[in-house]
């Protein structure tokens, strides 16, 4: 029997050689010769394309899930983590209704609009004689309204001495002519009150004055203050009308001061001075107080 191996083919044997030619004479009792070269390694069967596709697909799904988990951790906070405060020192919490409440044991900061502490006024500038501290619509002698209170009040201290009272920064009730709810500072020498307007940032402005016998201290030098035309405390209504004959004078009831007078310009109608009367406007009436126009709307703004 003859057969040809792949090695023989490669060595140049005839291509017409038939390896199965000797099989044609077999009777059935002979052993069948090997049909393949026993030295040839067994070929590995090819893998199924469907199986490979399933493996690749499963790998891609696992890779996608892992990537999604990583991205989700970067973008979303841990719901089990404690909420952080929006600002340093914030100790408030918000309940289900949206109401913010302070945590127990914490102290709420005062509103920014409330000035807790202000420095004391001290004497500044040159002293002004009582005779030259004339009460006018926009000034007390050379001391102008609307100017810095540390300077203007400081000059009043130089002229009149230390004040009898200084309220410090307080919320206005409107009693002294500043806007209710605004911050004011009332400084008093006997019957004279200097009305100071305090802004949110602590800026202090001389906003007005009030001279009133009800404030007491009639023995104070300030009791001798008078208007530029010579009106002073205790003058009669007749004296008022005589001094200001060329001006408009009106009398009206007041909810807190009983009856008041108002002195206005005959040309513009603007309010110049006003104040309470000690009695009715009859012949027995007298000037109980001399006030500058109110600071509200002039040097202080209404509180919203």
Brief account:
The chain is of the alpha+beta class and about 300 residues long. About 15% of the residues lie in helices and about 20% in strands.
Description:
There is one protein chain. 17% of the residues lie in helices and 20% in strands. It is an alpha+beta fold. Among the domains are: 1-36, no CATH class; 130-291, no CATH class. Strands 5, 6, 7, 8, 9 and 13 form a 6-stranded antiparallel sheet that branches. Strands 10-11-12 form a 3-stranded antiparallel sheet, with no helix packed on it. Strands 1-2 form a two-stranded antiparallel ribbon. β3 and β4 (143-144) form a beta hairpin.
Characteristics:
six-stranded antiparallel sheet; alpha+beta
Low-confidence stretches: 1-13, 70-113
Write down the Rg: 52 Å
The 3D shape can be described as elongated
Separation of termini?
121 Å
Mean pLDDT: 78
Structural class: alpha+beta
Strand content: 15-25%
Task: Give me the secondary-structure topology.
Elements lengths: L5 H5 L38 H27 L16 E3 L5 E3 L36 E2 L2 E2 L4 H12 L4 E2 L3 E2 L11 E7 L2 E7 L5 E9 L24 H7 L4 E7 L3 E7 L6 E6 L12 E3 L13
Antiparallel strand pairs: 1-2, 3-4, 5-7, 6-7, 7-8, 8-9, 9-13, 10-11, 11-12
């Amino acid at each position: 029997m003859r057969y040809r191996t792949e090695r023989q083919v490669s060595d140049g044997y005839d291509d017409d050689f038939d390896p199965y030619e000797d099989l044609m004479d077999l009777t059935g009792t002979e052993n069948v010769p090997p049909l393949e070269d026993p030295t040839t390694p067994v070929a590995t069967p090819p893998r199924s394309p469907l199986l490979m596709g399933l493996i690749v697909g499963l790998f891609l799904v696992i890779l996608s899930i892992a990537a999604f988990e990583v991205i989700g951790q970067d973008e979303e906070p841990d719901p089990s983590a404690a909420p952080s405060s929006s600002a340093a020192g914030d100790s408030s919490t918000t309940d289900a209704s949206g109401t913010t409440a302070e945590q127990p044991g914490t102290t709420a900061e005062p509103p920014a609009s409330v000035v807790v502490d202000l420095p004391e006024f001290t004497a500044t500038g040159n002293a002004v004689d009582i005779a030259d501290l004339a009460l006018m619509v926009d000034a007390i002698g050379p001391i102008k309204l609307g100017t810095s209170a540390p300077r203007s009040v400081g000059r009043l201290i130089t002229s009149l001495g230390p004040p009898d009272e200084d309220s410090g920064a307080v919320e206005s009730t409107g009693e002294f002519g500043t806007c209710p709810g605004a911050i004011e500072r009332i400084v008093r020498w006997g019957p004279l009150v200097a009305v100071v307007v305090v802004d949110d940032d602590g800026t202090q402005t001389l906003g007005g004055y009030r001279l009133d016998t009800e404030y007491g201290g009639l023995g104070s030098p300030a009791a001798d203050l008078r208007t530029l035309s010579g009106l002073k405390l205790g003058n009669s209504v007749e004296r008022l009308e005589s001094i200001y004959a060329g001006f408009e004078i009106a009398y009206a009831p007041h909810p807190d001061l009983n009856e008041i007078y108002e002195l206005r310009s005959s040309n513009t109608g603007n309010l110049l001075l006003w104040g309470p009367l000690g009695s009715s406007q009859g012949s027995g009436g007298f000037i109980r107080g001399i006030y500058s126009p109110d600071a509200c709307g002039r040097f202080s703004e209404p509180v919203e």
